[in-house]
Amino acid sequence: MRTILLFALLLPSLVLAQIPQSKSLPKLSICVFDPLGANGSLFNTMKDYRTVAFDWGVDLEPRAYTDEKIAVDDFKAGQCDATLVTGARARPFNKFTTTIEAIGAISDEKMLRKLLATISSPKAAKYMREGQYEVAGIMPAGPIYLFTRDKTIDTLEELSGKRIATIDYDEPSIFMVNHIGASMVPSNSANFSGKFNNGSVDIAYAPAVAYKPLELYKGLEDNGGILRFVLAYMDFQIILRADKFPEGFAQKSRTAVASYFDRVNEFVEKETKEIDPKYWIDLSDNAKQQYGGMLRDVRIKLRDQGVYDGKMLKLMRKLRCKVNPAAAECVEKLE
Amino acid sequence: MYLSIRTAIAALILMTMAGCSSIYTTTGWFAYDFAEDYAMPYVMKTDDTEMGCAMSESMTPMLMAFSELTWSPDRLATSMYMQAGACAEARANEEGLSYLRAYKAQNIGEAKDARIRQKRLFALAANRQYKGYKHLVAEFGEPGETCPDMDEEEEFFWMLGLVSGLQAVMSDVRGQGEVGVPKDIAMKSVRGSQCLDAKRWWGMPKAMQAAVWTMMPDNAPDGVDPWQELADASELAGDAGVRLAQAVEVVIADGSGNEERLRDAIRRHAQSVKTTPPNAQYRMLDIVANQQVLAVSDRLWTEATGSRTPIGGLGTFWDDQSPAEEALDIDDLLGD
Q1: Interface of B with A (CB under 8 A)
Q2: Fewer Cβ close by (within 10 Å): the C or N end of chain B?
Q3: Averaged confidence pLDDT in chain A
Q4: Are A18 and B217 inside 8 Å of each other by CB?
Q5: Residue A3: is its pLDDT beyond 60?
């Protein structure tokens, strides 16, 4: 859904493989967005990925970018042959995979695991390529929650008129903030936490893993809270310029990256436990239904506007209905 | 008769134990005072990091054992753990070079293994550095909110503990989060460093603050260029002969992905080492800083050439153009 500073994100080390032979491999590069640049965990993960990519026939040199926009621009300009960026920034390259971050579409980690395994399988390969670009892996980065400085704000009506730190290049976020009648305060991954912590916004949305490194408890203080309702699951995606890579590279990569899910999830759960339990605000079933219905309306509108991909929304609706077949949406089939 | 012998033996044992305990306690106080007042200041003046590592790695458990008899030597523990952490970090950097060389040689199994070894060592470093930070908290309280009332000696330990906290977070990230160092101690340490005078402490408080601003530029005051601040801090460090702030600048420039900026920071450090001798009192810290810069230079050299910085080559790069010397015409010179 959106770029958030992830001082903490750790992704699993890649599976060991052998076959060290002397080969002359094409030298390619990947523009890696990491808030900590070459010192960060995403960049470090790409050092491991490089050794695995070698066995798939490519010498893929990672290059660190602390500014995600520049990473994408350089990739578009052909400065790199691949890029690793957040789902929100990857939207121009693949509508299908970036719709995974659609608001309220994924109920829990089990569903996300199933979804990523499904779309990373060879059968789904046809959805991974759009024009010259191909998705070569999706790494989950955990659930995104709503952080509020006033814990009495727990209904949709109460969000109206509130100032929300909004990632300004993310179309769904802007649409959503307008939809609930809140006031958008343009922000980015490097400054939203400061705005939340010093009170210049009332509300921010962020992944659970940002809580500790960005000290979001400073903005929550004594009166704040976090709605225990997953707005979306954040992810990072590896995008390739397909014609530069050997046949079959992207599929091997997707399969490998999908297998890291449990390790990443374990990390996210550990970080989520760092959140002081007093901050969690549990919603009533009624409120959850109200939120769920509203988010579905937003998804459908964004699909109709061409932002979200209809096929992915349908796939996610079907996965939700496998778990909860009695839900109204399973009869209505609007997605 | 039998009873009185047994009583006598019991009394003897009790007396012996009490005697031992008092000897240990006295020794504990002696060790505590000696280590803090003499050993640590002495080590700070030395120039052999290998010996420093051997000392901190071997002596820390023994000194800490005396805390069972005296009180916990938190200030000493902060500096010992910080130093031992730096030793593990240096070994982790070596494994990073092994990874690069193995990859270049297309020995992928070895490259992967080197990465795993590197991560284990970073986890060890994070574990030690985090302990250093926790001893700081035990001594002075949690940093980040208010400044404790400190004399100059206490300020020194305060700064070491904060550096240890910041390094613990970075090492844990590099070690894939195995230790679970709380990530917020990075920001707490940076705020805590603002309790110190930038000039007195060799530009370190300024460098730590500027490092955060480079990552979150909107947090910097209007008109302040974080990179210029880092360079200014490095200058203070150079003037003082304790170049920790220069190591911070190099590490942050390395992270930024801007190689020209990184090379410039390394060149300025190398120049500073040539022109200003280390501060005699804190020679060890200056050498540790130098080794951190050298580690980054080694990585750059190894990536480009397959081997580390040549002897005497810090501040130079493999593709530097040596100033062209115009050749004279030999025939002119040798002709009549």
Answers
A1: 99, 103, 106-112, 115-116, 119, 169-170, 173-174, 176-177, 180, 182-184, 186-187, 215-219, 251, 254-257
A2: C
A3: 90
A4: no
A5: no
Q: In which residue are the tokens 């046949």 written?
A: A247
- Gap between the Cα atoms of B175 and B96, Å rounded: 12
Please measure the distance between the N-terminal and C-terminal CA atoms of chain A and give it in whole angstroms: 19
CA–CA gap between residue A260 and residue A279 (Å, rounded): 30
3-state secondary structure of B86: helix
CB contact under 8 A, B177 and A8: yes
The Cα B111–Cα B317 span in angstroms is 24
Task: Report the 10 Å Cβ neighbour count for A332.
Answer: 10
Spell out a b/e string for B113-131, using b for 16 or more CB atoms within 10 Å of the CB, else e: bbbebbbbbbbbbbbbbbb
Q: Which of A334, A328, A298 has the alpha carbon at shortest distance from A314?
A: A334
pLDDT at A264: 87
A288-297, A304-313, B223-232: least confidently modelled range: A288-297
Torsion of CA A81, B176, B255, B249, to 10 degrees: -170
Check A51 against B111: CB less than 8 A apart: yes
Which string of b and e fits A307-316 if b means at least 16 CB within 10 Å? bbbeebbebb
Using CA atoms, how far residue B312 sits from B96, B272, B297, B298, B317, in Å, is 21, 14, 12, 12, 11
A55, A63, A198, A215, best to mutate vs chain B, most B CBs in 10 Å: A215
Kindly tell me if the per-residue pLDDT of A22 is higher than 60. Answer: no
Per-position b or e across A288-301, b if 16+ CB within 10 A of its CB:
eeebbebbbebbee
Asked if A188 contacts A66 with a C-beta cutoff of 8 angstroms, the reply is: no
Structure tokens at B46: 């030395």
Residues in contact with A67: Cβ distance below 8 Å, sequence separation at least 6, in sequence order: A33
Which tokens hold the place of B123?
A: 């986890």
Question: Looking at A10-24, A80-94, B39-53, B75-89, which range is the least confident one?
Answer: A10-24
| Mean pLDDT in consecutive groups of 10 residues from the start of chain B, 336 residues | 58 54 79 84 92 91 81 89 96 97 96 97 98 96 94 95 95 93 94 96 97 88 94 97 97 93 98 97 96 97 96 95 80 80
What CA–CA distance (Å, rounded) separates A117 from A85? 20
Q: Is A31 strand, coil or helix? A: strand
pLDDT, tens digit, for every residue of A118-169? 999 999 999 999 999 999 999 999 999 999 999 998 787 889 999 999 998 8
With 70 as the cut, is the pLDDT of residue A196 above it? yes
Pairing of strands A280-281, A225-241: parallel
Identify the burial level of A25 via C-beta atoms within 10 angstroms of its C-beta, where 0-12 means exposed, 13-18 middle and 19 or more buried.
middle
DSSP designation for A185: E
